[in-house]
Amino acid sequence: MEKVKCLIIGGGPAGYTAAIYASRAALSPVLYEGLEPGGQLTTTTVVENYPGFPLGVDANALMTDMRKQAENLGADIRRGVVTSCDLSHRPFSVTVDSETTLEAETVIIATGATARYLGLSSEQKFRGLGVSACATCDGFFYRKKDVAVVGGGDTACEEATYLAGLCRKVYMIVRRNVLRASVAMQRKVEATPNIEILWECNTREVLGDAGGVTGARLERGNGDIFDIKIDGFFLAIGHNPQSALFKPWVATDPEGYIITDGRTSHTNVEGVFAAGDVQDPRYRQAINAAASGCRAALDAEKFLKQ
Ligand SMILES: Cc1cc2nc3c(=O)[nH]c(=O)nc-3n(C[C@H](O)[C@H](O)[C@H](O)COP(=O)(O)OP(=O)(O)OC[C@H]3O[C@@H](n4cnc5c(N)ncnc54)[C@H](O)[C@@H]3O)c2cc1C
Question: For residues 191 and 180, is the Cβ–Cβ distance under 8 A?
């Protein structure tokens, strides 16, 4: 059976950065990329907020370069999905594509989190063309335009108030007749003049043309159907952290985010570390994911030395 010192699961900014640091620390890391080599950023076009690129950077090029950088430093990056594991004792046992099992002295989990969508075909059609699940990432492209935010929880309120600072008008599309958000967040929304809440509304369809989103067709609780004109349609109905495989051993919060110890990447299992969106319910940005990948590799290195 193949034995590795440091096994990294996930080929996004967190995983590749962990691989860069682990290679330089002579841990000979092996990284499995799963079904989405390059991670979530490969589903967007330009990244304007990753430092070091005065004119922004093509998202796919950024991820290809991170991968190359890790490989040039010696990381062994492989296609393959981790399908099961046993983290009950060291060395840990990790199975890839249900057929190959490896033994790992340390494991870095960097499997990311996927945004929840409503499940409309029109929503998928306009993904990246006006439909987004990240206001921090994409809000800037809608300056002085009208947008809608779907959701009624804290995240939706935060995204709406953030967008209200950039956009002309922000509709909040809320299923119920109350917000689920904390009272403080509700007050913030109410105090923002360019946010209009559309109560008891469900989205039937995202409307658009070759240029992208132009509106949304909504249905009120009483069955009335009406359209709003918007340029951007933001989902804020939560994320699914990709942590299910590890849950029998690794502690998570109620939403499934892996719990790490303070400012480190340590999980409750000694020798298992977590980095990136899978352990970050709050920031979910590439720069944070990369930084936590660095922490995980440094923590793994220190752990192995002890
Ligand atoms: C449309 C969009 C636009 C965005 N724009 C920006 C932006 O402009 N700026 C910014 O900073 N951030 C942006 N983000 C957020 C950013 O992409 C994430 O914060 C970042 O990618 C998280 O990195 P990660 O490494 O934690 O996880 P991810 O990028 O999600 O990567 C997870 C990796 O884990 C792999 N994986 C999952 N399960 C398994 C498994 N079982 N076995 C093996 N591998 C597995 C996946 O294949 C993938 O390679 C955007 C996100 C989206 C969706």
Answer: no
101 and 95 in contact (C-beta within 8 Å)? yes
| CATH code of residue 68 | 3.50.50.60
> In terms of domains, do 122 and 87 share one?
no
27 contact partners, CB below 8 Å, separation of at least 6: 5, 6, 106, 297, 300, 301, 304
User: Is residue 246 classed as helix, strand or coil in its secondary structure?
Assistant: helix
Predicted confidence at residue 44, as pLDDT, reads 82
Ligand 1: residue of 31, 40, 100, 242 to mutate (most ligand atoms within 8 A of CB) is 40
The pLDDT score that the predictor gives to residue 234 is: 97
| Residue spans of the chain under pLDDT 50 | none
Taking the CA of residue 38 as reference, the ligand 1 atom at the shortest distance is 49
Q: Pick from 202, 235, 268: which residue ends a domain? A: 235
Task: Give me the catalytic one of 137, 157, 167, 201.
Answer: 137
Nearest residue CA, atom 39 of ligand 1?
A: 34
262-274 burial: b if 16+ Cβ within 10 Å, else e: eeebbbebebbbb
CA of 41 to the centre of ligand 1 (A): 6
Within this chain, do residues 109 and 122 fall inside the same structural domain, yes or no?
A: no
**166-172-174 Cα angle (round to 5):** 160
SS3 294: helix
Same domain for 46 and 136?
no
Catalytic (active site) residue 134: yes
Q: How many distinct structural domains can be found in the chain?
A: 2
Q: Does one domain contain both 20 and 69?
A: yes
Token pair in block for residue 179: 């917000």
